[in-house]
Amino acid sequence: MSTKQIYNPYLPSYEYIPDGEPHVFEGRLYIYGSHDRFDGADFCLNDYVSYSADVHDLTDWRYEGVIYKSIQDPRNQNIPADAPEAKPGFCARADYEPKDLNAPGIHPMFAPDVVRGLDGKYYLFYCLEPFPEICVAVCDAPAGQYEYLGMVKYADGIILGQREGDYIGFDPGVFVDDDGEIYLYIGNAPIRPEQEDGTRHSMVMKLEKDMLTIKGEPGKLMPSITESEGTGFEGHEFFEASSIRKINGRYYFVYSSVNSHELCYAVSERPDEGYVYGGTLVDIGDVYLNGREAKDAVNCLGNTHGGIECADGQWYIFYHRQSNRTNYSRQGCAEKIYFAEDGSIAQAEVTSCGLNFGALEGKGTYPAYICCALRAKQGVTFSHPLAMKMDFPYLTQDGSDLEPEDERAKADRENPVQYIKNLQDGSVAGFKYFAFTDTTSVTVDVRGEAKGKIQVIVVPKDTVITECYADMKAPIAGSVEVDVNSKEWTQVSGKVQIPSGEAALYFRYEGDGKFDMLRFTLE
Q1: Residues tagged active-site
Q2: Is 93 helix (H, G, I), strand (E, B) or coil?
Q3: Are 368 and 520 contacting, i.e. CB atoms less than 8 angstroms apart?
Q4: Where does 6-118 show beta strands of DSSP type E?
């Protein structure tokens, strides 16, 4: 077992890879997701990259590089050299008028999936905004240089999505069954009944061995919000993010529900019909966990997307969280999940230590961005600048989007790029879980203009808290006095009495002004 620790998010703090689809190939767990640009003005503005880790050691993630560029799609080529979208760093959503949002070369690539075909090659399925088709790229290695192959099509050559009556293709999930049958799952459905326009639905279809040609006809799969009455899916109907796994002879379909901030699952004895609602796998605000309501969510809410995978005998759910007060700077997280004897899966709790072998050590220095709960005194809201304004704390970074070769990125583990911004009276930042051993002092790196105190609250593991964290009545283990007026990071310290044992750690600020938090040290 590795002695190295890993936290959520499990990738570097400057990395924004949402929609993570995990797959084990050749002894390594690979993450395939879309790729947000920090502070971008739309979803998925960067090219596809991949990370991987040895299945026996998920504490050590390797950057595999860019595996597929949006410019490789024919619809993103032939850009005039003097066109705005040809300029480095161009952001379509910030510079184009609405009529020009879909100009050539700026169509983002949404959530992908990868599968190993019957020929041993690896096939990447994706969709390009705002087109209705599903595209495929191919490679000889799990994370090599994928090459454009074509669009999924009917046997007569008509492209899926271009035939009259076709539903829009979206968020592909692909699966090869034990008998060699290849299944493609796509779809996006209305969140509210009044959004129904007849163009969107959950779909499934078989593919030929060429991974492009549909075998037979597509069929509807999961019930939408307009047709769910009496199905058992009420309140958790399919929205998007299809992901499929076969476990112990049964098919588990993971999806994002109409609530958007949760991933749910359904189970069937067949890959293409008969699914029964299973429950919530994870919610980025811990909504539904132990009866928690949305008003008491532990984090700002927004969409999430992911899948499940087994590594070294342990199953995990991969998902993403929001940051930067938008839906456009999302980060991948993961939690352990457990199957009951009847095949059901209990909802996972969002934590700071999801992939770690256990609780984090109750000593040492930790970055503030690994918080798994972040609330204002008044609660939480939707992750959007118009909703949050500057009334809520949030996760962000200084500067522009970073790549792994950037100097600031290279030092990210020791000097994290991301931090908590805008903590103010009543704000709470929570971290789960630590294995404490008589901790007696806490040091926090802060900057800003604030005067007050940070209350240090410790809650033993397995204690159920469903009320607003800002009103939490748990015993206070100590406090850290804050009296800062600086744009530079400054350390403030305080004495605490934290007994031995596994527990959650919360910092609650009481006082005037606002400040940022970079890291904290337990001694």
Answers
A1: 19, 240
A2: helix
A3: yes
A4: 21-25, 28-32, 48-54, 62-68, 113-116
Rounding to the nearest 10 degrees, give the CA dihedral for residues 92, 160, 177, 276.
80
Q: Three-state SS for 448? A: strand
| Host domain of residue 25 | 21-73+109-337
The neighbouring-strand residues paired with 254 are: 243, 265
Q: β-strands 501-522, 364-367: how paired?
A: antiparallel
Residue 277 · residue 229 · CB < 8 Å: no
CA atoms within 13 A on the CB side of 97: 1
What was the pLDDT predicted at 78? 61
Whether residue 308 is found in the same domain as residue 430: no
β-pairing, 360-361 vs 428-436, is parallel
Report pLDDT for 99: 35
The pLDDT value given to residue 471 = 57
Question: What local confidence, expressed as pLDDT, does residue 87 receive?
Answer: 41
CA distance 519 to 443: 8
pLDDT at 234: 98
What span, in angstroms and rounded, lies between the C-alpha atoms of 445 and 293? Answer: 33
Q: Is the peptide bond before 433 cis (omega within 30 degrees of 0)?
A: yes
Please provide residue 512's backbone torsions phi and psi, each rounded to the nearest 5 degrees.
Answer: -100, 160
Q: Identify whether 126 is part of a domain.
A: yes
Residue 318 maps to which CATH number? 2.115.10.20
**Which residue type sits at 218?**
P
Predicted confidence at residue 83, as pLDDT, reads 53
**Whether the Cβ atoms of residue 336 and residue 347 lie closer than 8 Å to each other:** no
Same domain, 138 and 48: yes
Q: Which residues, given as ranges, of the chain have pLDDT below 70?
A: 1-2, 78-105, 467-473
pTM above 0.90, yes or no: yes
The verdict on 277 and 398 lying in the same domain is no
Cβ atoms within 10 Å, residue 19:
31
- Residue 497 near residue 437 (C-beta atoms within 8 A): no
